[in-house]
Queue: 2 jobs
Job 1
Amino acid sequence: MTESPDQPAMFRPRYAEIATFMRTALVSDPAALDIALAGVPYDGGTSNRPGARHGPREIRNSSSLMRAYHHVTRVNPYALCRVGDVPSERIYDIEAALDEIQAFFAPLHAAGVVPISAGGDHTVTLPIFRAIAAERPLGMVHIDAHTDTWDEFQGSKFHHGSPFRRAVEEGLLDPRRTVQIGIRGAQNTPEGWDYSLSSGMRVIFMEEFTALGVEAVIAEARRVVGAGATYISFDVDGLDPVYAPGTGTPEVGGITTIEAQRLLRGLGGLDLYGADVVEVSPPFDPSGNTALVGATMMYELLCLVAESVARRKGG
Ligand code: MN
Ligand code: MN
């Protein structure tokens, strides 16, 4: 194994160096990248326990434990694509904050760079979609305890329970090419679940996930999104809080870490235009395990996206 000239820190002690995502170089010129790892430290759309604004920093720290070669697929994403960490910052008035997030991702998209981001609460996926899906709606594999297709909450259309309803309304997300996996937990009204189902999304509640098993869920997810342009959004609360307690809206009875890894590895070959890991909330994560899980899922997503980008480049 030789040192990659683009990623010298990968072969230095993992506790040394500046804590970028996966020890990649910090890059400010999008032209230098195929895939941008980006933090979106915004949690102004949280409906209950806050703290996901601290997610990117802790995921960056834990991601120093990630290495190059995937042990199952033998993919080395850094050999397939130019990968770097890009800086960002934003806060306050939610609609202005969403505009700022969109304005951050739009030039990356214009430069042909595929984003893999760490939230932040799930609200941040909406402005990312606004930046990358304007030319055609995306399909989506969405792992979450919640459908995030609710409408107004406390007088706001924009919060972490509504991004995918807004994305459908804005023509950014194709509900017929959307699969939601791991849904569970009581709600005060069923309107979000009903919106997902009536709009044509395939909703795999946790009970069906358990009954089908991971392989059948993979087959169903692949059937739903098909060969078109697709996004993967991974809300860490889709996992059981045994594995990921540090999150704003934990729901017991969820997906295990190995099930999630198998599920993501089963999505190889999809035509991917972005991915995210959201809702890691370090203030509720005293062991740090949720940040490690988030970083690990981000690495799984990086391997998938790198293969997809390399295929499009003809590599
Ligand atoms: Mn969510
Ligand atoms: Mn959730």
Note: The mean pLDDT is 94.
Job 2
Amino acid sequence: MSRNVEGSRGALIAAAQQVRSNAHAPYSRFAVGAAVLDEQGRIHAGCNVENAAYPQGWCAEASALAVMVAAGGKRVQAVAVCGVADDPVTPCGGCRQKLREFAALDCPIWVADMTGPRASFTLGALLPNSFGPEFLNP
Ligand code: THU
């Protein structure tokens, strides 16, 4: 991991903590914030958005990725997720795959709560033996 990426850790976690307060989670009451660092060093943040038709809701990580893509971002260099639970709140399986589209297997995923960092993973550790864009040669 480059020093620049490591140097963005605090700002990325702060962005995930901040955006978490905008989560629309009236059904689960489980607010999550996520932030991604793009290839230009920009931070994009998003929260979970639930729906009265439950399966239509989506996760914070998906929101953050959509914000990045809409802003012209192409690659994810690092991810921060903020949720409050006894154990560190890691991305769900579907979001691990969504991140796989834009991030390398050594991409750091920093998991935090509102007090600060809780755990650190790589995408490859959370999603081993995965299927990704290079299989399709677009
Ligand atoms: N959720 C996220 O947004 N990200 C995660 O990493 C875990 C789960 C959301 C989905 C749903 O709105 C709520 O948390 C409870 O599952």
Note: Residues 25, 28, 30, 32, 48, 50, 57, 59-61, 81, 89, 91-92, 95 surround tetrahydrodeoxyuridine (CB under 6 Å).
